[in-house]
Prior knowledge:
Layout: E1 4-12, E2 15-24, E3 29-37, E4 46-52, H1 61-65, H2 69-75, E5 78-82, H3 121-136, E6 139-149, H4 151-162, E7 167-173, H5 183-193, H6 205-212, E8 219-224, H7 230-234, H8 236-246, E9 250-255, H9 262-280
Parallel strand pairs: 4-5, 4-6, 6-7, 7-8, 8-9
Antiparallel strand pairs: 1-2, 2-3, 3-5
Helix pairs in contact: 4-6, 6-8
Amino acid sequence: MNTIKNIRQHSCFGGQQYIYSHHSTSTECTMRFGLFLPPQAEISPVPLLYWLSGLTCTEENFIIKAGAQRVAAELGIAILTPDTSPRNLNIPGENDSDDLGSGAGFYVDATEAPWAKNYNMYTYITKELPALVSAYFPIDQERIGIFGHSMGGHGALTIALRHPDYYKSVSAFSPICSPMRSPWGIKAFEHYLGFDKTKWQDYDSTLLITSRGWKGPSLLIDQGTNDPFLETQLKPELLSTACDAANVKLNLRLQKGYDHSYFFIATFIEDHLRFHAKVLQGCNI
């Protein structure tokens, strides 16, 4: 069994905030993730939310900046925050830009050299981490949700749409709604997946909604109107159009005056936690 190492632990709102490291078989390197366990986890298994962070982030950004632990402790929900990519692999170019390589895994399984050996974040999130969680922590595997921000919002949407039986709820802040039509996404997909765009389709939420639909609860999306990436990179109107065509329920909230930062996330994180708690049931809301 893959072993994990407790790097740090802090008491927080009656629960515990951990940071762990472990050797990943998916990425063939050491990975880190954060885990908040609410006080209810001492009594019985609790629901779990996966939070996927955006470009340049580590497992710590959400833990420190989002202010989620207080409400998560009240609701009895655990939150797992993985890192956003493999790191320190000496791959040429891995640290040259903010939108490729370190901190920019895009939650795909790379097929192209030199990324294919290690950049398998899709498998890491959807297979390896759930197995670790099941082995080590008091988590109710029937009550799992996922959410994220920007690149991580893209990851949360695509992963939930591809695994609707496992992820019962999904939401996002400022997601890259169609990476195939976003400069960030195009750059990453060309390097990680190659130039055959048919290989990109399983990682684009607008195409997944068109091809697979979504029978779960309404998708909750918060998007700031003052986000500098709104028109060029994020394009929520493409997601709205796809949902309308596929009869998928979408609650797209345009938040006036908010930008792309964690100030935005911290403002509306309670709404998202209570949305997931209601869907996952068994929580005090």
